[in-house]
Structure formats: structure tokens, C-alpha cells
Amino acid sequence: MTYCFAGPILNPMKNIIDLTDVIYLPAPKDLTPLLEGIPEGDWVVLTSDEERVLAHGPDFSEAVQKAHDAGEDHPFITRKLAPCSWIL
Predict the structure, then answer these.
(1) What's the whole-model pTM score?
(2) Taking the CA of residue 20 as centre, how many other CA atoms within 13 Å lie in the half-sphere pointing to its CB?
(3) Is 20 in the same domain as 46?
(4) Residue 35: closest CA among 23, 25, 26, 43
(5) For 37, how many CA atoms within 13 A lie in the half-sphere containing its CB?
(6) CA torsion 20→21→26→28, rounded to 10°?
(7) Secondary structure (3-state) at 59
(8) What is the structure's pLDDT at 28?
């Protein structure tokens, strides 16, 4: 599994930034292949392991209901946004 660094932690007991205690989080998964062909603006409901699209559509409630009907109790929900052409 790939991890990304989340940064040092402020240790309130020492009142300093403690560089020995760090948090490692799983790196974000690239969902691009799963989102191909889905219209921009649609809500996308994936399996909890983020491996398969269960449903999508412009209406949040309908997309989530389709996932629950498919037997997924804890789906991963996201929205397909338009690609950004700017950088912060």
C-alpha cells in the first residue's frame, strides 16, 4: 500500500512540534478509470473498496438508493467534477 505523509504533530504535552510523531495516511486512489464515460456533475456511488461503480446519476438520493438496492451498505460516494484548468 502506498502512503502519503500528513506532517508533524503538535504535541500539547511538550508544547512543541514533535517530528518523531507523524501520521501516515493511505495515498488517494486514482478513480479516473472508473469515472470514464460518466457525465460531469453526476454523483458516483462505488463499492466500499472503491473497485466498482454501483450507480451514478444527477440525483444524489437516487444514486445512493441504487447502491443500497445492490446490497452495498457502506458505499463510497463522490461526484464527478469538470477537470480543472488552473493551478493554485
Answers:
(1) 0.65
(2) 3
(3) no
(4) 43
(5) 4
(6) -80
(7) coil
(8) 78
Quick one: 40 and 83 in the same domain?
yes
Could you tell me if 16 and 54 lie in one domain?
no
Compute the distance between CA of residue 8 and CA of residue 23 in angstroms, rounded to an integer. Answer: 7
Query: 2-40 pLDDT, tens per residue?
Result: 444 445 555 555 555 555 556 666 777 889 899 999 999
Residue 10's H or E segment, with its range, is strand 3-11
Least confident of 43-47, 50-54, 71-75: 71-75
Q: How far apart are CA 24 and CA 42, in angstroms?
A: 31
Strand 16-26 relative to strand 3-11: parallel, antiparallel, unpaired? antiparallel
